[in-house]
Design a protein that fits this description.
It contains four helices and eight strands. By secondary structure, the chain is α+β, with helices and mostly antiparallel strands. The protein has one domain. It has an eight-stranded antiparallel beta sheet, covered by helices on one side. The chain is globular and about 40 Å long. The N and C termini lie far apart (45 Å).
Amino acid sequence: MNELRAYADGRWADFGGLDRCGMADADAALGPRLFDQLYGGTFGGEPTQFALYPGGTASPKGLTCWILGDVVVGLEIRQPTPAPEALADLGEPDTVIGSELGPSWSQQLWPDRGLVLHRHDEVIAVSFGLRPFDVEAWESDPLRWWRIERRPARR
């Protein structure tokens, strides 16, 4: 599962989408988890669990692996920092659509790679590594409507 390491390091041109990947594969590719326990959450509208990994070159804040049963169904990097050449190596996105983060943000899609970036200029809010997907089906996928949860701060 060298693709998991490529994803964590921001070598997204080497990421071809998630194939059948179990937790043991993720542990082998990404190293020890930050916490042994899995946590509950929702990914793509489905109740899932997630594991946190230290990440890599492009994921200094860590990498989240979303798990359904024992299968990794999604990878998430918040505020990834890929090398400048990583995006050039990746090439232009196949499709660009609006993002729920605001009017100046966009979702850049490489569906054959299973790669989604929520981006504004040079800032990337989140990157998703998924199974390859169909752009038409993406419109009805709950992940298409992802946004950062905003809660009022206590004073």
